[in-house]
Design a protein that fits this description.
By secondary structure, this protein is mainly alpha-helical. The chain has helices at 4-14, 26-31.
């Protein structure tokens, strides 16, 4: 039986990579420069709301900067 780490490596080989240009912070800040009201969104538990197919529930994994703590 393979470890979860090895299963993830095999999965990564089969995925199609999506590459997106990284937006410089100056651009979005220039668009909201004259704003007077801003909202704050807490996305700490956002990954729990991603829907997946029933047969692929064990495939997704998530990585954080600070590890799993």
């Amino acid at each position: 039986m393979s470890s979860p780490l090895n299963r993830g490596r095999r999965l990564n080989v089969t995925l199609d990579p999506h590459q997106y240009a990284i937006t410089l912070l100056e651009y979005p800040f220039s668009k909201i420069g004259g704003g007077s009201r801003f909202d704050k969104i807490d996305l700490a538990d956002g990954y729990l709301q991603i829907k997946t197919a029933k047969d692929s529930k064990d495939l997704p994994n998530f990585r954080r900067n600070g590890g799993l703590s």
